[in-house]
Amino acid sequence: MEEKTTEMPCDNLNTRSATLPAATNGRQKLPVEHLHELCSNALEASLNSHQAKIAKAGLLAGDIDAWRDAIGARPEGRLLETAASELTLSVLNACQAQYRNAFKGLRLVLELCLQSCHLSANLLDSAEWLRGDRDTKWSALSNDVDGPLGARFSKAFNPELEDHTPAFRSIAITLYRELSECIHGNLPKRINLNDTICFNHETLDLWLKKAEILTNVCHFSLSLRYLNELPPDAINKLRSPIGDNLGHISTIRSKLEE
Description:
- By secondary structure, this protein is mostly helical.
- The protein has one domain (31-257).
- It has 10 helices and no strands.
- It has helices at 31-71, 77-95, 99-120, 123-130, 138-141, 151-157, 165-184, 201-226, 232-246, 250-257.
- Helix 3 (99-120) packs across helix 7.
- The longest helix is centred in the first third of the chain and has 41 residues, at 31-71.
- The protein is globular.
- The relative contact order is 0.14.
- Mean pLDDT is 89; it is low at 1-7.
């Protein structure tokens, strides 16, 4: 059961115009110290009200690490390693009411997971990307034919999941579009962002919902690409996270039960 929300003080982010309290040693507090206090207050309120859900969202970092270990020393594993780290930072930002950064972090994790799958099937693109000569392009990742959630991709790597792929591609595209509000500075349509570092129950709830959607998309895209190639011992290590998130798909459930 979630605990009762604790009300915490809020303050405007523009600390240049704010009167900051003096530190205990008599010196004026630096703006960054004031922001640290606001983050600490928000963290306490977030954990008091959403601890179980936050812990669940953070499991994705360990899941991505497990996928990275499962695929071995493949070059695209570096992207998964980064994705796991960025997910952890996104959780921290969400707990500290740094919501814009938290939502931006979810988008980056989505891009990294899909890009790792995309590069695994394109050796030339992979070599150029790892050298810094090629950029990540969302148009390629969301392509309905050649993208990592595209028809050609699913036919090549896991045709049993072909019927489910369009739905997950649509979900990924919608999620990317919504999270992009926090990057381009658009007027908020779907994500309400604070002007202050202050716990917001509704915004944290929304972040948790987007994190849950991201978890499902990441597990599906990685399963689509790798599940038919992994040895039994690797699948065994992934059985719990895949089953928890994609066990409703009979094809995946059957694969896990082999």
